[in-house]
């Protein structure tokens, strides 16, 4: 068994059985974008292109009346900017998609030059759940000439790979967050690759997770550990070497894992369904800073040699115990996890990363308000200290508050800074804790 397992992994790496492999996508919740106009989409797409993202995955909920107008706008702008898009049919948010509706969407929008295709000209299609409708897809695929990579994570890799006589051309796993006070591992990714054999594996990667929403349709209030997650997971992408990578997400504000810009007009959800406005002014722009480097490394298998040195940092905006936890749990029992106090998971610390050609002669200072701490690097590129890649470390809040500025210098010369985010407060801004982070 061990031998077969290892063999399956190496085969999927060596044989390029999947067309157009090694692409990086970002998940867009179309339900959040009703108020966005052409200029907003131009901005979104240009930012994604700067980050070297290949396409947006458009998550569409069945029967959402806002979809059609939003899709027309997004496709029009994507065509003008030569960007790509494909659908993820969401079978969970508002119920299952009727087969004819799926075929209609793929057929109409698949005719656009902006629709993402594999090298052998198949329309790439994904889902959020929908295993009960697996039986629809033999027909859908045949009618639309599509390449089908659903997320059927609820079933686990073995069952999902076999559904409807193995109708999936690949699988996407939504498993992008760790269980407990620990780093995420690649165990589940390897299980997917093993179950899929030479079919495609699309790996999920996400920078953070905190949700606190309460409305008549759903109540959800938990976090998963976000400290160290983003850069640790990118290192795992290089190890797992999946066929595709999907970033969770571009604009899911409700779960705090957006890497796209925060736009006030997209935050209507928080007026009606959240006890505190936990996304307002909480920029995550810093989580895009290393993407061109990571994506090139993933695609070529080697660390790029030409790049701009950069520094990024992220932190929560108040000490964990400065106010009540708001009922937020670390972990979620619905996922068979042991729930723990949220402060056990995310430290009161400023985390920083520096993308450098080498750490030789490099120093880090972290200013919080008037206080200045000297930082060190504790995590190095896989190729070791002195080589090109992302170097990481953190310093504790240490009771300080104010603007956060992380500066990386080499031989006394400033290389790059990370600053301009919402300041770290000494106390909470609201009556309960905001477990979202700022990334600059
Ligand atoms: C997570 O991994 C990093 C190395 O990538 C290590 O420095 C750190 O101690 C780990 N943290 C936990 C909680 O295991
Ligand atoms: C966000 O920033 C705006 C502009 O500076 C300010 O008016 C608003 O109060 C801020 N809101 C929060 C929740 O930080």
UniProtKB/TrEMBL annotation:
Any matching Pfam family: Glyco_hydro_71
Keyword Signal recorded: yes
Protein origin, superkingdom: Eukaryota
Signal listed as a keyword: yes
Annotated signal peptide: 1-20
UniProt keywords, alphabetically: Signal
Name of this protein: Glucan endo-1,3-alpha-glucosidase agn1
Gene it is expressed from: agn1
């Amino acid at each position: 068994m061990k031998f077969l397992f290892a063999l399956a992994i190496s085969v999927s790496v060596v044989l390029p059985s999947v067309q157009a492999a090694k692409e990086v996508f970002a998940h867009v919740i179309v339900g959040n974008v009703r108020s966005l106009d052409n200029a907003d989409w131009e901005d979104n797409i240009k930012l994604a292109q700067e980050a070297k993202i290949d396409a947006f995955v458009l998550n569409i909920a069945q029967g959402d009346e806002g979809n059609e107008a939003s899709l027309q706008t997004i496709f029009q702008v994507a065509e003008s900017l030569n960007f790509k898009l494909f659908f993820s049919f969401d079978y969970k948010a508002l119920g299952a998609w009727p087969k004819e509706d799926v075929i209609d969407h793929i057929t109409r929008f698949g005719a656009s030059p902006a629709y993402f295709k594999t090298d052998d000209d198949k329309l790439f299609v994904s889902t959020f759940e929908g295993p009960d409708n697996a039986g629809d897809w033999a027909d859908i695929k045949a009618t639309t000439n599509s390449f089908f990579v659903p997320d059927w994570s609820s079933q686990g890799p073995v069952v999902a790979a076999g559904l409807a006589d193995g109708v999936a051309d690949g699988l996407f796993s939504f498993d992008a967050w760790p269980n407990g006070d620990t780093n995420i591992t690649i165990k589940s990714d390897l299980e997917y690759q093993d179950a899929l054999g030479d079919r495609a594996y699309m790996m999920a990667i996400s920078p953070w997770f905190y949700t606190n929403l309460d409305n008549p349709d759903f109540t959800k209030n938990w976090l998963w550990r976000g400290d160290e997650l983003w850069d640790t997971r990118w290192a795992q992408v290089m190890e797992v070497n999946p066929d595709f990578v999907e970033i969770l997400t571009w604009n899911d504000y409700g779960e705090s894992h957006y890497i796209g810009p925060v736009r006030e007009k997209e935050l209507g959800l928080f007026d009606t369904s959240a006890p505190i406005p936990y996304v307002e002014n909480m920029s995550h722009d810093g989580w895009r800073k290393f993407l061109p480097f990571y994506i090139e490394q993933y695609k070529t298998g080697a660390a790029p040699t030409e790049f701009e040195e950069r520094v990024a940092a992220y932190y929560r905006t108040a000490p964990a115990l400065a106010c009540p936890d708001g009922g937020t749990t670390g972990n979620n029992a619905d996922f068979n996890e042991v729930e723990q106090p949220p402060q056990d998971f995310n430290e009161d610390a400023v985390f920083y990363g520096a993308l450098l050609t080498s750490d030789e002669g490099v120093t880090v200072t972290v200013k919080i308000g008037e206080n200045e701490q000297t930082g060190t690097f504790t995590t190095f590129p896989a190729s070791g200290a002195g080589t090109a890649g992302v170097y990481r470390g953190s310093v504790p809040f240490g009771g300080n508050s104010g603007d956060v500025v992380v500066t990386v210098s080499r031989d006394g010369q400033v290389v790059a800074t990370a600053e301009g985010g919402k300041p770290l407060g000494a106390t909470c801004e609201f009556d309960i804790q905001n477990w979202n982070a700022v990334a600059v």
